[in-house]
Amino acid sequence: MAKYTLQIESDFEYELIGVCSHHQDYRVIWELNHHLNWAFQKSEEYYANYTKKGVFVSEHSTYTFCDEENGIDYLFIKNKAQGKFLLPELSQIDFFIFVKDNFVFEMEDLLARIRKVPAVVTAFSYDPESIKSCEQLVIFE
Fold it and tell me: NCBIfam families per the record (predicted)?
């Protein structure tokens, strides 16, 4: 009898920015909103992180911002919560900004703007396909 294997290819519909800061999430959000004229708001629900087998790992605070003028959705998530990381491969990163439907800004320009924010030490762009933990994330559903 033939044996079939189902392979699922992930198609990431977002860009990923890692942010390093010495400040708490609410302070970084305030600085981003103030210096970049964004309007992040704290979500009432936390982002629940699960393993591939559906086992609960941790809950991470989230902030959302929909730039209606440019049609871009942003999601800001704290990487470390309850002693666990959202993306363990990037444990040195404090926060992530997931950017959906960005057809307006070049990533380098966006990174340069974020790096100028006083509460931000540095920011990096990552390819979600190169990060194994991104496969289990359900972002912008």
Answer: IPExxxVDY (NF033205)
Residue 55 domain-assigned (yes or no): yes
| 51 vs 120: CA distance, rounded Å | 30
CA-to-CA separations, 123 to 10, 14, 44, 47, 92, in angstroms, rounded: 25, 16, 26, 21, 11
| Assigned domain for 102 exists | yes
Q: Is residue 8 part of a domain?
A: no
Longest dimension (CA), the chain: 63
pLDDT tens track for 81-140? 989 999 999 999 999 999 999 988 999 999 999 999 999 999 999 998 888 877 777 776
